[in-house]
Design a protein that fits this description.
166 residues, alpha+beta, six-stranded mixed β-sheet, 3 helices, 22% helix
């Protein structure tokens, strides 16, 4: 597949903006990056080497089937209705190795590596990492996220997981 540097740059800008909006807690801007019908999913590991493949059949650590579901999560974060999110951690998302795997006229499949450095006043510093798998949709207003799968590589987690620390 020939490299379209302009498209590659647009994809990277989108992913970097997503990370920035989460880190700065600009929830409205973050939500604006997603389609109404977004599928936002963090599958669990079935075994040491096998990742869940269907959120309807296997355990999902997070599964939001629409932007409305993401808005509900943000509402709980903003109103401190989620005791697990209080106090909210400070975070720094680092996104790299952005690779456009496939592109049609309207959508693209993209992979990226990520780490999140976070600080929780009760638990101290933590680092999580993994891969993001995206399905991006091209619109008149630019690229938006139609699906996001978060592959979480850490074996043990001693803090609650939510959209701000993955």
């Amino acid at each position: 597949m020939p490299i379209d540097l302009e498209f590659q740059h647009a994809v990277e800008r989108l992913l970097y903006r997503e990370a920035f909006f989460v880190d700065t807690r600009d929830w409205d801007a973050w939500l604006g990056l997603f389609t109404e019908d977004v599928d936002y999913w963090m599958p669990a590991w079935i075994s040491e080497t096998e990742l869940a493949t269907d959120p309807e059949v296997h355990l999902a650590l997070i599964h939001c089937e629409s932007r409305e579901d993401l808005e509900d999560r943000v509402f709980r974060i903003r109103t401190e209705d989620s005791l697990a999110s209080t106090p909210l951690v400070r975070s720094c998302h680092v996104v790299g190795n952005v690779l456009v795997l496939e592109r049609t006229h309207a959508e693209a499949t993209v992979s990226a590596a990520w780490t999140v450095h976070q600080y929780n006043t009760a638990k101290g510093a933590r680092v999580h990492g993994g891969r993001y798998e995206y399905r991006l949709r091209e619109t008149d207003d630019g690229l938006v996220i139609a699906a996001k799968t978060i592959v979480f590589l850490n074996d043990a987690v001693d803090v609650p997981l939510d959209v701000y620390n993955i």
